[in-house]
Amino acid sequence: MVAFNLGAAVLFASALGRGAQAAIVRGVNLGGWLVTEPWMTPSLFKATDTEDEWHLCNELGKDKCRETLEDHWSTFYTRDDLVAIKRAGLTSVRIPLGYWAVDLLDYEPYVSGQYPYLVRAVQWANDLGLHVFLDIHGAPGSQNGWEETGLVGPVDFTANQTNADRTIKVLRNLTEEFSKDHYGGVVTNIELLNEPLLSMDDLKLFYTPAAQVVNVTGINVTIHDGFYNPHSWANYDPNDESITANTTGNTEYDQDKRTWFRKLFEAQNAAFTPYGAGQSSIGWYFWSWKLEYDIDAWSYRRGLSDGYIPSNISDPSTYEFPIKDNGCIDTDHAYQAKATATFSTYSASATSDGSESSSGSGSGSSSDSGSGGDSSSASTTDSSSSSSTSTPGSGAASFSGKNNALSGLVYLAVAPLAFFSFFL
Ligand SMILES: *[C@@H]1O[C@H](CO)[C@@H](O)[C@H](O)[C@H]1NC(C)=O
Ligand SMILES: *[C@@H]1O[C@H](CO)[C@@H](O)[C@H](O)[C@H]1NC(C)=O
Ligand SMILES: *[C@@H]1O[C@H](CO)[C@@H](O)[C@H](O)[C@H]1NC(C)=O
Ligand SMILES: *[C@@H]1O[C@H](CO)[C@@H](O)[C@H](O)[C@H]1NC(C)=O
Ligand SMILES: *[C@@H]1O[C@H](CO)[C@@H](O)[C@H](O)[C@H]1NC(C)=O
Ligand SMILES: *[C@@H]1O[C@H](CO)[C@@H](O)[C@H](O)[C@H]1NC(C)=O
Predict the structure, then answer these.
(1) Where does the Glycoside hydrolase family domain start and stop, copy by copy (predicted)?
(2) For the chain, which domains are there?
């Protein structure tokens, strides 16, 4: 379920086709924040028997839900996280948003109040020199029926025109708001709809008017490919048995696991990073910066702390694997992770009220302790849900207001396991 849900990628336009070398996007998602997902923050859902935000709020009632979520919004991502993101050499954050942050009807159990936190995060990004990519993660009726949209169940987005109209209203709000001068142009992209499971025809019917709303100078319209894109994981072979993960061990002391993750991470980084003129890719976004329990391979900061993500992704001298002329890593390069993970600078634990306790905020390199990620984390989470068949990367295309030509792609929301049909 988890791996299936999040195996996502996006492609969008860059200036590459026009001769200029665009800055490479090395981004991370602020996942599980303004749209919650039980597998990412189980403590929020613990007191209820619910599997999405709609039903969580329905069960708690508006007042209690607002109180619970306000607490989460104000603590789960803080300025310190963005500082750590910047320090890790990342260049951009993607912030998923549900429609109900902007357009909530009385009968819907959701609560709103996310917007001030979004505004604050954009301002932090502006201060710190990070770009921001906004996306509609949850649309009315749900565009894929998964928990990430806030509502598990049937795909009812196309049940009526109202759902599309409401989504467009939200897109108009985001566009008008974040093209205001005082945000410093830091919001570079707005994605119309995340991971839609719709027919091509329905998608196009929505994309055309929606793109017109976002298409203003400065913000690039970004569309998800709805899983139709044939792009697949080109530079790595998950069926190569010599590199199959051993799923029986899952502690931070598992050297083989960390060796494998490092190779996988660097292979993806190399695959999705442009390596020469005429490349279509301009970068990637990893899902996610963190989770309440930093589940292996889904948490960027855990990768930093356990040493399987390079400490400064913008600095290739921190990579382990050489990159060959064809842009792929040299898989023959001998690399073995350190016997113990000693990189940790934060404690990947969460207090029972869901607020995060962290010291050092997961800056990867300069370690001052060996406290390790929370080794109990993986077993307390949803990681037992079985993996589905592998989801190849999907994509989205983006268009600038001035140039409607698609000339590049960015893989988005890439988590290492998302592309493989195994789960730890
Ligand atoms: C990361 O590497 C880039 C490129 O070398 C450099 O400009 C930046 O200062 C580095 N960041 C940190 C926190 O060391
Ligand atoms: C449109 O569809 C949604 C989701 O199925 C439903 O909740 C809503 O009541 C419908 N609205 C109208 C106006 O039919
Ligand atoms: C967008 O919606 C938010 C939340 O309702 C509101 O505070 C903000 O003023 C709106 N911005 C624009 C430009 O409409
Ligand atoms: C939008 O895309 C164009 C290429 O189509 C690129 O030149 C421009 O830098 C992008 N804008 C932003 C704000 O990223
Ligand atoms: C997987 O790891 C466990 C624990 O280290 C070990 O006992 C087992 O033999 C390994 N299995 C394979 C197939 O390598
Ligand atoms: C954006 O606007 C420009 C100028 O009005 C237009 O040529 C282009 O087709 C629009 N792009 C999209 C994606 O709607």
Answers:
(1) 69-223
(2) 2-419 (3.20.20)
